[in-house]
Amino acid sequence: MTQPTLIRAEHLRTALSLAASGVPPLPLRAGKVPFGNCPACAKNACGGRPNMKAPGPCTCPAPCHGWAAATTDSHTLNSPAWARAWGDAAAVAYHPGGAGLTVVDLDSEAAIAWARGSLPATRIVRTTRGEHWLYQGVMQSANAVRPGVDVKSTMAYARWLGPGTGTMTALPDVVRALAVKQPPAAGPAPQAVTVPALARGGECRHRTPAYLERGIAMAEQRITQARSAVHATVYRTFLAVLSTHGRCGCLTDAHIGRLFTAAQAKGESARHCTDAWTNALTTLGL
How far from the centroid of its chain's Cα atoms is residue 47's Cα? Predict the structure, then answer.
């Protein structure tokens, strides 16, 4: 058995173990993004999966619909319909809200320092760029609530990086308050984006702070300046960003969060943002 095959088998074993403990997992593709809608469910033609804990009217067996594909049904996870997804999976994620959890995703040293001084101690999971602070309780998810801070609970997914350390604390009001919209304020100065070199040793022209930052800033501006047809503008903007940056692993959760935040500021719901992103991925075959 080759090393990639062993890794993929390990992903499935991890998913089944999570499901058995009541945590709904899902496979992630390269770039830490969920699988897009299957052709039969493109643009949520099937009606989607509105329930955050269990499938809704859609009976599609494939792991589509992004975060809503997460399930604790071991037969579904281990079914032939999901075999290809696990074969292509680069990582395992889970739906925090479906497990009764909220994840405060801290994406920088500054964000971690803020959390240590502002939030109750709880279970911590180390990530590639920071930490996940896990709380017992469910709330509305929200991106970019502070510089380098996302809140992931309902209608969201988080990468599984292990159980973490420490005792889990009940979800405090100070975290719930992070999802409450505040009056607009001047944003922080753009920070340099550091992305490791491609595994194959090649160079990616998108992997420079100036090029990537300019592209994300232009996308935010396009959404913000929309005066009509906001739904269509958000979708076309997502499509443009993914067509340029979606195939080389440049985009991070922080970049995607900035786009979703701009869209939600124009009145788009978190579900509409997720649908538009997923549909753009499907259109481009990502």
Answer: 21
Rounded distance between C-alpha atoms, residue 234 and residue 223, angstroms: 6
- On whether the CB atoms of residues 142 and 105 are closer than 8 A, the answer is no
pLDDT tens for 83-131 read 888 888 899 999 999 999 999 999 999 999 999 999 999 999 999 999 9
pLDDT tens track for 22-57: 999 999 988 878 887 777 776 666 665 443 334 445
Which among 32, 108, 31, 28 has a CA at the least distance from the CA of 63? 28
Q: In angstroms, rounded to a whole number, what is the distance separating the alpha carbons of residues 195 and 207?
A: 6
> Residue 58's pLDDT is what?
64
Neighbours of 80 (CB within 10 A): 7
Q: Quickly list DSSP for 199-252.
A: TTS---TT-SHHHHHHHHHHHHHHHHT--S-HHHHHHHHHHHHHHHHTTTT---
Question: pTM score, two decimals?
Answer: 0.60
